[in-house]
Structure to design on (393 residues):
């Protein structure tokens, strides 16, 4: 069924291409400029969005084997994600139960146990406390009651979601709203993790606005991506998650084919955003690859940072292919840092200055309109009512 949905999207893009039209909202929307820098609102976004909703924190490719782990910080919470001996993925607060020290430094690696660098308490990849240093001198302790604090976690479609609230009742699969079925068509579970790099940006919503926008492509990126893609986008939503297609008469090439013969890799081109902080952009040159932009608020409302995770369908088999991959990913880092985020940082300063009361999202910027609507809705939704937002069927 997922491929059928992809073909339906392609046919709609074809119809728009032939008609010279695109998806449009009913009206222009105004967003108050203070939404991008007000500290109280930013704190609410951290607490009611980033610490309540599932976040895509890792990929299967980063934890491909038993014993692999990934340690990272997300919205101020230190997280440890592990692949257990039986192949299951688990997530924990990266915090020793003794005195709260961080167990593992940020990064990916492999370990059969996690030993605290402060007092050498040790934990298994399942989160169990397995050893207490100088236990006889420390005193009697029930190890079963002092394991790592688990976090809700789900691995689907070769991607790994974690909720930062240990007591969350929001079902992660329900939150995905069926979107993971389409993402599964990529086959990420068998892909290769090439590298990850970090770029600094403006307010997280300023940054995310750009990921939902083809309108700027032939202007801001005219010297890098060129103007061929055009400035028109079509938006397809599953709950708060959005795929950006575009009006494209090129799909006419496949109209006479059986739908099973439509090329999946072509159907997956474009941008796939996962609320509230992920953009997946797919590329075909030099072998299939994607850039997963993993966006987080920074330490202040005016800042953010993005982990650019590069996955490839196949590990480069030659030095030439490896060099090509490195050049592609460095190019994408340049585009984001020096074009998108440099523009966003300068934009942020203008917003802070107070010369305008609102920014505008046009009828052609439907993705941005929906994104801000979801942000507003989540800030107004209680914990009790949160699951109702993602009910399907």
């Amino acid at each position: 069924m997922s491929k059928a949905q992809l073909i339906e999207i392609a046919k709609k893009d074809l119809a728009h291409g032939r008609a010279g039209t695109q998806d449009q909202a009913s009206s222009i929307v105004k967003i108050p400029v203070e939404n991008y820098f007000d500290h109280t609102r930013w704190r609410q976004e951290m607490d009611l969005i980033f610490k309540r909703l599932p976040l895509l924190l890792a990929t299967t490719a980063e934890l491909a084997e038993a014993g692999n782990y990934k340690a990272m910080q997300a919205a101020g919470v230190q997280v440890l994600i592990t692949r257990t001996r039986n192949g299951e993925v688990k997530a924990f607060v990266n915090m020793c139960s003794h005195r709260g020290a961080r167990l593992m430094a940020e990064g990916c690696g492999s370990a059969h146990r996690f030993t605290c660098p402060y007092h050498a308490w040790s934990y298994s990849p399942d989160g169990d406390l397995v050893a207490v240093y100088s236990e006889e001198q420390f005193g009697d302790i029930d190890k079963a009651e002092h394991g790592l604090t688990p976090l809700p976690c789900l691995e689907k479609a070769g991607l790994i979601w974690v909720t930062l609230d240990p007591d969350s009742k929001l079902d992660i699969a329900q939150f995905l709203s069926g979107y993971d079925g389409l993402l599964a068509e990529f086959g990420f579970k068998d892909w290769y993790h090439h590298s990850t790099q970090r770029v600094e940006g403006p307010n997280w919503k300023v940054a995310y606005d750009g990921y939902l926008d083809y309108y700027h492509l032939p202007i801001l990126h005219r010297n890098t991506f060129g103007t061929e893609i055009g400035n028109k986008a079509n938006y397809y939503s599953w709950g708060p998650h959005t795929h950006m297609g575009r009006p494209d008469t090129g799909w006419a090439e496949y109209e006479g084919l059986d739908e099973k013969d439509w090329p999946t890799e072509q159907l997956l081109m474009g941008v796939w955003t996962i609320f509230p902080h992920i953009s997946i952009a797919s590329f075909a040159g030099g072998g299939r690859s994607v850039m997963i932009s993993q966006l987080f608020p920074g330490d202040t409302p005016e800042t953010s940072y993005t982990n650019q995770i590069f996955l490839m369908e196949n590990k480069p088999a030659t030095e030439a292919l490896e060099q090509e991959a490195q050049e592609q990913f460095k190019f994408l880092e340049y585009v984001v840092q020096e074009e998108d985020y440099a523009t966003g940082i300068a934009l942020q300063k203008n917003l802070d200055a107070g010369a305008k009361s609102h920014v505008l999202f046009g009828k052609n910027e439907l993705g941005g309109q929906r994104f801000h609507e979801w942000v507003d809705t989540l800030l107004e939704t209680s914990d009790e009512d949160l699951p109702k937002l993602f009910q399907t069927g």
Observations:
- The mean pLDDT is 95.
- The chain has two domains: 2-52+178-390, 55-162.
- The longest strand covers residues 192-201.
